[in-house]
Design brief:
By secondary structure, the protein is mainly alpha-helical. It has helices at residues 3-20, 24-43, 48-60, 70-83, 89-92, 108-116, 128-143, 151-161, 166-174, and strands at 98-102, 123-127. A two-stranded parallel ribbon has the order 1-2. Helix 1 (3-20) packs antiparallel against helix 2 (24-43) and helix 2 (24-43) runs parallel beside helix 7. It is elongated, with a radius of gyration of 18 Å. The two termini are 34 Å apart. 26% of the residues are buried.
Length: 177
């Protein structure tokens, strides 16, 4: 197993721990930052929003469909990462839906019904477990794709997930003595 795989296994384990402990914002922050990092590995510096939406579109909802669009998810990511609220610039402009999250034993259908009977018309619902499942399925799809074998993608993985030994660090530090 290489460092890339080990790091993502740790991240997924961290998400599971957050879910088990009902830590909603850390769970969402980890999910959204994981998508950011996978998008960067896949596409490089094409812009955070463009890469995020492209990765979601190409990998995340392929196995298990959702009514959440890539722009909805990117908007939710911006809201959580930047303000810890459900609203972002895109959702405020009605360019994306606000995402409401069901947790634990909550039934998505009951939450959706409540929203239908409310004054809110720009909300979509996803269960956090489904979001996490889609992330895992998307990651597997990405890892098994031909895309990950492309030279620029492999270079980004190697650059950021290479293994550095204690000797490598000691030799590097000697340059600054």
């Amino acid at each position: 197993m290489n460092n890339f795989e080990e790091n993502y296994i740790q991240i997924f384990y961290g998400i599971e721990l957050c879910l088990e402990n009902k830590l909603q914002f850390p769970t969402l922050s980890l999910i959204y930052s994981t998508i950011d990092s996978l998008a960067w590995i896949a596409y490089g510096d094409i812009g955070v929003g463009s890469g995020f939406k492209k990765w979601v579109d190409e990998y995340m909802f392929k196995e298990k469909k959702s009514n959440i669009t890539p722009i909805d998810l990117y908007s939710a990511r911006c809201a959580i990462i930047h303000t810890l609220t459900p609203n972002s610039r895109d959702s405020n402009k009605k360019q994306a839906s606000v995402i409401a999250y069901a947790w634990g034993n909550e039934d998505v259908n009951i939450l959706e019904k409540s929203i239908e009977n409310s004054k809110y018309d720009n909300l979509k619902v996803i269960h956090i477990n489904d979001l996490f499942e889609n992330l895992k399925l998307g990651t597997l799809g990405f890892i098994n794709s031909d895309h990950i074998k492309q030279k620029d993608c492999l270079n980004r993985m190697e650059e950021h997930y290479m293994e550095i030994s204690k000797n490598d660090l000691e030799n590097y530090n000697k340059n600054f003595e």
